[in-house]
Design brief:
Blueprint (H helix, E strand, L loop, with lengths): L7 H27 L2 E12 L5 E3 L5 E6 L6 E2 L4 E5 L2 H29 L11 H4 L4 H60 L4 H77 L1 E3 L4 E6 L7 E2 L6 E4 L6 E6 L12 E5 L12 E13 L5 E10 L3 H8 L10 E11 L1 H18 L1
Antiparallel strand pairs: 1-10, 1-14, 2-9, 3-5, 3-8, 4-7, 5-6, 7-9, 10-13, 11-12, 11-14, 12-13
Helix pairs in contact: 2-4, 2-5, 4-5
InterPro entries: Beta-barrel_AprE (IPR058982), MFP (IPR050739)
Pfam family, one: Beta-barrel_AprE
Organism: Thalassovita mediterranea
Length: about 425
Amino acid sequence: MKDDALPPQVARPAFLGALAVLCFLTGLIAYAGFVPLATTLTLSGRLVSSTPEVVLQPPYGGPVAEVLVARHDHVAAGDVLLRLDTTVETKQVAAVQAQQARLRAENAVITALLTTDMPVSVPVSGPVLDGAAGHGHEYALQMQLAYAEHQAKQQSVGALAQQITLLEGEVALTERQLSGMQARADRQAGLLQKGVLKRTEVEAFSEQVLMVAAEIEGSRGTLAALRDRQAQMAAQAQIVLLQVRQRLTATRARNIKQLQDIDQHLAELKDRIERATIHAPISGTVTRLDLPARDAYAARGKTVLAIAQPLAQPHLELTVPTTYIDQLRPGMVGRLVLPSLPQRAMPRIETQLAAISPRAALDEAGQPTGFAAQADLSLDASQRLASALSDLRLSEDMPVQVIIEVRETTLAQYLLAPLAAAFQRALQD
């Protein structure tokens, strides 16, 4: 056996080499068993602006007359984006304004007629009638006819007054005649008692007195009838004026009410015309355009255009798989990865989970597909990316990934911890 043994000059170096390899493997195993190992999760998502997207919705709607922008165009605040057709509204405004002018002219004529003292004889033309145009001239003629009828009735009242005056004179004269006849009848009665006159003569004269008295009573009845007719005629003369004034006043009130409605309708039409030209409320990029050409129709209240603001401070919208949700919580820090960029030149950009949706999104079959999450970038992320990659330009909806370290452990803990736990439970049993 001594012949088979290695010579010392060979065995010693071999032993030392094997010992060194054994020590190296032992150290490597010890290092691998106790070195910290990180469990990472990769979340996918997209880049979005921290400022909300502005959507434009026509408040009235209508056919599109002109589209001045296209998708992805950069616009400044105040730029005209599109115009709706306002041909119908413009014609309606012209018609309504014409009606408004006519009603105002009518009211001006009516007011002039109600505030002007018309003469007894109304001329065919004059300051009032010359200013009455269209329907206003009709109202002026109504007032003219009313004053003419009033004049005729006033003339009748004057004629009745003359008749009453004459009849009153006749009655007064007859009453004086009756007084003389009654005095004579009294004297004849005395002479009859003395026997100077015959009874037949006295009775005949008494009949004459009665006839005169009856004539006076008839004249008084006629006088009362004339006075009553005069009062009625005077009242009718005033009623004629009051009736025409009442009609004109009612017409003016209706016109005023109609003018109020017209003012409101006209304001709505002008507002429709003004809002038919849609301007950009902010500066940004057109991200959505549902009216690519003219002759399309913009529905009322429907989004036709959207403008995204510049990505001054973007954030991330991520999707968390359902298998990861128990390992993530808001506040955890991760590393941003842009898959479309070279990773060697990309700086380390940290992100922080800001919020995680408590409910999962469901597919058409009702199965959960993932949880929505939002992550914020560091304040200097955009500057660091721009300085590291000069050609980089962040844009909305850019795909991103976030790598998050959720837990640290060692191989020894991973292998020995279950054995220790099982052994401890065995001892307890």
